[in-house]
Amino acid sequence: MSGRVPPPPVPATPLDASIDEACADLGLEGLARELDRAPRFPRETFRTLGERGLLGLSVPNDRGGRGLPLVDVGAALYRLARTSGATVFGKLALQPEFCSVLAEQGPPALVAEFYRPLCRGSTLVGNQLTEPGAGSDTRAMATEARRDGEEYRLTGTKSEAAFAVEAEAAIVYARVPAHPRGPGGITAFLVPQRGPGIERAAVADMGERWMRRGTVRYRDVAVPATYRLGEEGQGFDYVLPELHRERALLALIYLGVARRTLEETVEHVGQREAFGGPLSRQEAVAFPLTEDWAEGDAATLYALEVLRRRQEGVAADGEAAMAKWMATEIALRTIDHAIQFHGGRGYSQALPFEQRWRDVRSGRLAHGPSELMHLAARRVLWAGAGRPGSS
Ligand SMILES: Cc1cc2nc3c(=O)[nH]c(=O)nc-3n(C[C@H](O)[C@H](O)[C@H](O)COP(=O)(O)OP(=O)(O)OC[C@H]3O[C@@H](n4cnc5c(N)ncnc54)[C@H](O)[C@@H]3O)c2cc1C
Question: H/E element holding 159?
Fold first, then answer.
């Protein structure tokens, strides 16, 4: 009894042919596996994706991106993740979006030097918010940027950052001491990563190892005042909308990987014989997979709907947070079922599922832990009413 998973509920996009070609020509599926075994940032592939117009999909054309509507971007990321069976390429495609503070607040010279090349895949820019003492509660950050004539002197430590040892530049958030403590004092800077006073170290990650995450120490690093992004004290106001925007897009990457995994598992249990018939005949096997299909498609439709609302100018921040946490949970469960129903081989590195699980597991932490996603969603549920716990 062989199953057939109906096509996923995502619209066609103008990028579909380019995505399929890139996956085939560049061997993206195999590359994702290689990047896990021997972690490195895939610089050549990043550049090639840029040449093929697969980076910065929602970034306006006049800033060097593709200028696609958000629903198309979400559908394209889903396709990229489903076809390659991996999170890496969708996340590379999104890196210009992750750096929109530079595009929106940076002086034209910095945008030309760093942002446009980022959209072409010829330079890499990271984001550094998290610190050893301030992660979920980023407002508690301690890194300081003291104004000194025409420059700032930057001192502090950033941690957990993607591309810590790879990026040419990073958007660094630091407190300008003249301002009050709290979000009002936080300012964004673009900081080239190879100057004096900068020390970088990678951590050994459980998944998404190609990101080369790590820690960056700044000791009295000179940052020209012209490298400040926007106004002093406004850094948080700039970055928060960006974080909200990205969550529904990330959800579609995780759901694309889940869908690919489900399709492979349904095929496997339709063929694998045990106890006189295919495994798919066992309800204990078929029901969980049916749930994975139903919940995966429902979460996909939901994430696309959040993007549609955002496209129409509705913030939908709490809903985007819900989309990310639900997608992560559904994807992890789907991959776990794949490990289980592929039996002993499912648990081995011969099959891609254990890597997919480790990669998608980052979704419970990166771009805000799932608990903070619940807090954002709670604000929607209790808008205008008494909050739980308040009198
Ligand atoms: C793959 C990956 C990539 C990342 N990339 C970057 C990056 O590029 N730049 C960057 O700045 N950071 C990055 N991060 C860091 C990430 O944003 C932080 O790890 C995350 O915000 C949590 O901060 P923390 O690690 O300090 O955990 P903590 O703040 O110490 O929190 C630990 C845990 O406590 C719980 N918790 C915290 N607050 C609450 C609350 N209010 N209610 C309930 N539970 C709570 C959550 O379970 C949380 O995971 C990345 C992380 C990962 C895993």
Answer: strand 151-161
The pTM of the full predicted model, rounded to 2 decimals, is: 0.97
For the chain, what is the mean pLDDT? 95
Mutate to test the pocket of ligand 1, among 95, 131, 136 (most ligand atoms within 8 A of CB): 136
Question: 210-254 pLDDT, tens per residue?
Answer: 999 999 999 999 999 999 999 999 999 999 999 998 999 999 999
- Chain position carrying tokens 């002993």: 344
Inter-residue contact 320 to 367 (CB < 8 Å): no
Supply the residue whose CA is at minimum distance from atom 48 of ligand 1.
Answer: 369
Q: Measured between alpha carbons, how far apart are the two ends of the chain, in Å?
A: 57
Distance, C-alpha 57 to centroid of its chain = 14
What is the per-residue pLDDT across 84-100, written as a single tens digit (0 to 9) for each?
Answer: 999 999 999 999 999 99
Which pair of tokens denotes residue 385? 């009413």
**What is the predicted pLDDT for the residue at 183?**
64
Ligand 1 pocket: which of 362, 365, 367, 372 to mutate (most atoms within 8 A of CB): 365
Q: How far is the CA of 135 from the centre of ligand 1 (A)?
A: 5
CB 83 within 8 A of CB 77: no
Spatial distance between the Cα atoms of 213 and 202, rounded to a whole number of angstroms: 6
289-319 tens-digit pLDDT: 999 999 999 999 999 999 999 999 999 999 9
Minimum CA distance residue for ligand 1 atom 24: 135
Name the residue at shortest CA distance from atom 25 of ligand 1.
135
Provide the angle, in degrees to the nearest 10, between the axes of the packed helices 317-341 and 283-311. 160
Question: Taking every pair of C-alpha atoms in the chain, what is the biggest distance, in angstroms?
Answer: 80
Residues with C-beta less than 6 Å from any ligand 1 atom: 126-130, 135-136, 160-162, 208, 213, 362, 365-366, 368-369, 371
Q: Read off the tokens for 222.
A: 């000179």
Domains and CATH numbers, the chain: 16-120 (1.10.540.10), 125-234 (2.40.110.10), 237-381 (1.20.140.10)
Residue 198: pLDDT band (50, 70, 90) is very high
Contact assessment for residue 157 and residue 131, using Cβ atoms and an 8 Å cutoff: yes
Ligand 1 centroid–CA 213 distance in Å is: 13
The three-state secondary structure class of 182 is: coil
CA-CA-CA-CA dihedral for 76, 102, 41, 92, to nearest 10: 0
